[in-house]
Design a protein that fits this description.
The protein is mainly α and about 270 residues long. Helix content is about 60%, strand content about 5%. It contains nine helices and five strands. A three-stranded mixed beta sheet has the order 3-5-4.
Length: about 270
């Protein structure tokens, strides 16, 4: 009975946290967010500083200028124009990029070999910035926090009830709890970022049709698994089909925006 009471109390705590922090993503999907914007910015700032210490920053001025040009156009159409964005090009063969709360964008030089031209680079940057806009980082950390609370409750309950093979039970529970900060974003979040990202690039004057070309290029990289950027993304066929369906909505945005673009971004040869 003692272990049961402990489990029920713990469950109530978790459900209470979920209820008070549940909100909707920009596409209407339910989210549980436990952290404030200030807390997420602090995490993003610290993570980015650590990455700059641990990874080599590119010294190629032309490539850096090009990446900044594309990133600046994408961030210029964001709703919050008070946020300043720090863009860093890392010298690495990784085919990857990321954005963090607090206004940080990281791009790996390996991505530039796959993202052919500014429109395709804008596809990736729009996608990564969309993760920040949709508070996917907060959602992931919150899930990890709730999972950690749940694991602690289960551990205490098992210990109090004297269950044999306690470590085995905990291992089994842990195996089903591989979520949050220890894994990349999930497929629902990735699909959401695709939708939001292609709109961002179109509003920034980049051709959304190139988003389809970009993901086709991605599917050819790294064999059957593809590059790290695709680790938990929707299947290439589903992603491309979704982006193709969005073209009817996005092309008018692009047609309107491209006439107002003053800063053309040209990839170095």
């Amino acid at each position: 009975m003692k272990s049961m009471r402990l489990g029920l109390v713990g469950l109530a705590v978790v459900l209470g946290l979920s209820a008070c922090a549940t909100t909707q993503s920009p596409t209407g999907r339910g989210q549980t967010l436990l952290y404030s914007a200030a807390q997420m910015q602090q995490m993003g700032d610290a993570s980015f500083e650590e990455m700059k210490k641990q990874q080599k920053v590119s010294s190629d001025k032309k490539l850096t200028q090009y990446v900044n040009c594309v990133a600046n156009r994408v961030t210029a159409v964001l709703p919050d124009q008070t946020q300043r964005w720090d863009v860093v090009l890392f010298d690495s063969e990784q085919v990857n990029a990321f954005a963090l709360p607090g206004g940080h964008i990281g791009v790996y030089t390996g991505l530039l070999k796959v993202a052919k031209g500014p429109d395709q680079l804008a596809t990736v940057l729009g996608h990564e910035v969309a993760h920040v806009l949709a508070q996917h980082g907060n959602e992931q950390v919150s899930r990890g926090q709730l999972t950690g609370v749940g694991m602690q409750i289960a551990d205490a309950a098992l210990g109090a009830s004297g269950v044999s093979n306690r470590d085995l039970y905990m291992s089994a529970l842990g195996l089903g709890a591989q979520v949050g900060v220890i894994l990349p974003f999930g497929r629902a979040q990735e699909s959401e970022a695709d939708i939001m990202g292609v709109e961002l690039m179109a509003r920034a004057g980049f051709n959304p049709a190139q988003s389809v070309e970009l993901w086709q290029n991605m599917s050819k990289v790294g064999g059957s698994q593809g590059p790290e950027l695709l680790s938990t993304h929707p299947s290439n066929s589903n992603r491309i089909a979704q982006l193709q369906q969005l073209q009817g909505q996005m092309q008018p945005l692009y047609a309107s925006a491209k006439t107002q673009v003053k800063n053309q971004c040209v990839a170095p040869k």
